[in-house]
Amino acid sequence: YPFELYLIRTAKAAGAFTITIQPGMAAKSSIMKRWLNAEAAYGLPPKFLPFSLRLYLVHIKKIIQHIIFYYVLPLLSGFLPFTGKTSFALETAVAGERADYQVVLSERDYKTHLDDGILKKKLLILAHPYLRNKKIFNLLSPTRKSNKKERSVTVMVPSDIKVGFRRKDFSPIPMVQRKKEWRDLLNVIRKSLPGWKIYLKPHPSTKNPSELQGIFIKVLNTVFLDPQTPAETYMANADAIIELPLSISTTLFTASLRWPTTPIISIDTEGELLGDYYKDFSGIDYVTNRIDLEEKLKLIASGGYKKEPAPATSRLTGEEFKNTIDLIQHVTS
């Protein structure tokens, strides 16, 4: 964003070195760009224009914004333009491209940033805080009950997304259709896990929980939780954890670290842009249709489910660090 651009430039002029830290889940910038542009085009009036034309108009609009923010305004303020491919206006904001170093949380994120064009010499790996401070996290977080009698599944309900898009043809997935798919998937879960308690945990940003609750009210044996309730409270004692589409939250990722033996499933039945984020993700099953979902759930219910163990942690390489102190000492040496 503009403020950060001026801040980084001023810091470098003063002789400081700059570090960008991965803020959350890392998806390829090219995929994020497609999704954000499609969402903007879908809401762009007039609606009678073909979607492809609206997509083109969004692209033109963003080019104009880029020229204004990265060239015109700096020149009018007495600064040189901001060159480079990173641009919040063009949705090509590759974190770390303008900084001296980019800190990422895993080898997977390291590869994602490499694919996005970040130089290898800039990339540093600092493992997720939980992997570095398990004892502290375990003391502060809910623990699994050893005498638990009830079998339960915690189902994560994503935030209110106005519209989604299929990867193959950009066809829209309106919220009405998404909610119907959620209800149908929940019925598959209920039938595949007979007698299990189903805890529905909406995203904290859910705007109208009561309306959402009305969608699931007819599904038996479900408990609709307050969106502000910490997900960890129920995931800690869950026998399975599932996220409905669009499955892109950090919840499954942190759950895979905290409870590595618990079955975790990410659902992408619509073949959605960004919906395959957890494909080939260690410790998480990625499911694309209801038949596969039903088969996995029945295996979980019968005790026949075998979770693939996460690969053993590799030895530290030159780009990996055990803690923040080691990392800071490296970049300042």
Supply database-style keywords.
globular; 6-stranded parallel sheet; alpha/beta; single chain; 12 helices; 4-stranded parallel sheet; 12 strands; 333 residues
| Number of DSSP-assigned strands | 12
Low-confidence stretches: 312-316
The value of Rg in angstroms is 22 Å
Could you give the distance between the termini? Answer: 30 Å
SSE ordering: HEHHEHEHHEEEHEHEHEHEEHEH
* Basic shape: globular
Helix content: 25-40%
What does this protein look like?
Helices cover 40% and strands 14% of the residues. It is α/β, with parallel strands linked by helices and 333 residues long. The strands form three sheets. A six-stranded parallel beta sheet has the order 8-7-4-9-10-11, sandwiched between helices. Helix 2 (29-42) crosses helix 3. The chain starts with a helix and ends with a helix.
